[in-house]
Amino acid sequence: MNDMSDDELRTRFSALRNQDRRHEPQFSELWNRAEPAAPAAARPYAPTFRWIAAAAGIALAAALVVSKSRESRNHQLIVTTVPSISDWQSPTAGLLQAPSRDLLAPPSLLSSVFDGVTQTAVQSKTD
Amino acid sequence: MEQCELERELGQLHSESWGWALACCGRDREVAEDVLQTAYLRIISGRARFNGDSSLKTWVFGVIRLTARGELRRRWLWRRRADSETAIDFADPTRGADLVLEESDRRARLIRALNSLSRRQKEVLQLVFYHDMTIEEAAAIMKVSIGSARTHYERGKKALARKLGSEAEA
Question: Using CB atoms within 10 A as the burial measure, which of B12, B61, B76, B86 is most buried?
Answer without folding.
Answer: B61
